Every structure is written in structure tokens, then in C-alpha cells.
């Protein structure tokens, strides 16, 4: 599973709890996209970035 290159957000785990309180495993996946990003050297690099980092402007697209 991919992790965000900026904030390290990735998948996390917990339990689904039914009405009868039986528990089964659950996995939440973060919304991570593969994006071309501008680097400090002026080039472009492809990396995984979550959509919350894209929206907040922490990363500039190439």
C-alpha cells in the first residue's frame, strides 16, 4: 500500500462492529494519488501524495 510522501499517511486498521457486536477486521485506505511534482532543482518527480496535501498546497504539481 502506498504512503503519502509528504505527511506519511497510509492505510490503518481497526474493527468492523456489527449490530450484534461481532467484530471483523477492517482496513481504511487513504486517498493517495500518483502525481508529478516539482522538485527544488527545477525538475519533476513522480511521487505518491494524498489528496489532503494536494488541496492544502503542500505540494506543487509539475
Element layout with pairings:
Layout: E1 12-17, E2 23-28, E3 32-38, E4 44-50, H1 51-56
How much of the sequence is in beta strands? 35-45%
Instruction: Specify the CATH class.
Output: Mainly Beta
The residue ranges in which pLDDT falls below 50 over 5 or more consecutive positions are: none
Tally of distinct domains: 1
CATH topology: Ribosomal Protein L24e, Chain: T
Rg over C-alpha atoms, rounded to the nearest angstrom: 16 Å
If strands are numbered along the chain, what order do they take across the biggest sheet? 1-2
User: How many strand elements?
Assistant: 4
Query: Which structural category do the helix and sheet elements fall into?
Result: mainly beta
Distance between the termini: 24 Å
Count helical runs: 1
InterPro entries: Bacterial_rp_bL28 (IPR050096), Ribosomal_bL28 (IPR026569), Ribosomal_bL28/bL31-like_sf (IPR034704), Ribosomal_bL28_bact-type (IPR001383), Ribosomal_bL28_sf (IPR037147)
Organism: Blautia obeum
Protein name: Large ribosomal subunit protein bL28
GO biological process, one term: translation
Q: What is the structure about, briefly put?
A:
By secondary structure, the chain is mainly beta. It is 10% helix and 42% strand.
Question: What does the model show?
Answer:
With 62 residues, this protein is mostly beta strands. Helix content is 10%, strand content 42%. It is built from one helix and four strands, in the order E-E-E-E-H. It has a two-stranded antiparallel ribbon with strand order 1-2. A hairpin with a 5-residue loop joins strand 1 (12-17) and strand 2. The protein is rod-shaped, with a radius of gyration of 16 Å. InterPro entries: Bacterial_rp_bL28 (IPR050096), Ribosomal_bL28 (IPR026569), Ribosomal_bL28/bL31-like_sf (IPR034704), Ribosomal_bL28_bact-type (IPR001383), Ribosomal_bL28_sf (IPR037147).
Amino acid at each position: 500500500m502506498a504512503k503519502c510522501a509528504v505527511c506519511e499517511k497510509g492505510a490503518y486498521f481497526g474493527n468492523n462492529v456489527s449490530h450484534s457486536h461481532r467484530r471483523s477486521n477492517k482496513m481504511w485506505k487513504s486517498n493517495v494519488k500518483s502525481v508529478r511534482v516539482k522538485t527544488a532543482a527545477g525538475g519533476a518527480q513522480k511521487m505518491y501524495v494524498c489528496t489532503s496535501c494536494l488541496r492544502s498546497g503542500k505540494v506543487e504539481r509539475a
